[in-house]
Amino acid sequence: MILESREVTKKYGSKTAVNQVSLQLEPGLVYAMLGPNGSGKTTWMKMVAGLVKPTNGEILYQGTPIGKESKKEIAYMSTEPYFYNWMTVSDVGKYYEDFFEDFSMEKYRQMISRMELTEDMKAKKLSSGMMAKLKIAVTMAREARLYLLDEPLNGIDLLARDQIMKSILEAIDPDVTLVVSSHLVDELERVADAAIFMKDGILANQCMVEELRINQHKSVVDLYREIYGHGGEEVC
Ligand SMILES: Nc1ncnc2c1ncn2[C@@H]1O[C@H](COP(=O)(O)OP(=O)(O)OP(=O)(O)O)[C@@H](O)[C@H]1O
Fold first, then answer.
1. What does each C-alpha distance from 51 to 30, 44, 71, 88, 215 come to in angstroms?
2. Nearest alpha carbon, ligand 1 atom 7
3. In angstroms, what is the span from residue 180 Cα to ligand 1's centroid?
4. Which of 15, 192, 213, 226 is deepest in the core (most CB within 10 A)?
C-alpha cells in the first residue's frame, strides 16, 4: 500500500466537502476518481497533496502521516491556473526545476515535444488546451511515486486526449501510482485499473475495473449510471 486515507473528513464551515473517506491506494495502479461536480474529488486530492488539512481523520503516505517528506514524492496537478503570463515554456521548466528536487529537465523536454509545444512559446499566448498540456508536462516531469491529476483532460480536444493519456502512462514507472479525476468516464475507463466513486463527499463505491467486467459484466460507465442515476445502492 502506498497511501491510506483513514476516515478523512474536511469541513468548510457548515459544508462537509469530504465525509469520512477511508480508502487505500496500491503501488502500480491507475485509479479513476469519479463523481459529479462538488462530490469532493479535488478536496480529497488537495489533502493528499498536503495543501489542505483534514478536519478529522488522517492520511498516511507509506505508513507515515503526510507532510514535508510526502510532498517530495507526491505530484499534484490542480485545476487552477499555474503560470505567470510572462513565462515561456522553457521558463516554466526552470521554475519547476528550482522547486522540486525530483524534477527532470530531460523528461520535461520529452513531454513538451510530445505535447507539440516548443520552449519559446509564451504562457499568455497558449490556448486553454495548450495550457492544459503544459500543466501535464510539468507535473509528469517530476519523478514522483504518486501522481494526482485533477481533470487533466479538460480543454483538450478528442483526438489529442488519447495521445495525452498515453504520454502520461508512458511517463511513469510500473510501480508508480496515478490518480486521475475526470468527468470523461469512458475515456478514463480505458486506462484505469480501479475506480473510486465519490458522492456528496462520501466514498460511494470502489472497484477494480477488470473484476467489475468479469464478475458483474459491467463497465465503469454502467456502474457510474447506477450510482449517480438511482441512488447508488449497488456494491462491486
Ligand atoms: N475553499 C472552499 N470553501 C468552501 N467550500 C468549498 C471549498 N472548496 C470546496 N468547497 C465545497 O466542497 C464541495 C466539494 O468540492 P470539490 O471541489 O472537492 O468537488 P469536486 O468533486 O472536485 O468537484 P468538480 O468536479 O466540480 O471539480 C463543494 O460543495 C464545494 O463547493
1. 22, 10, 9, 26, 38
2. 12
3. 16
4. 192
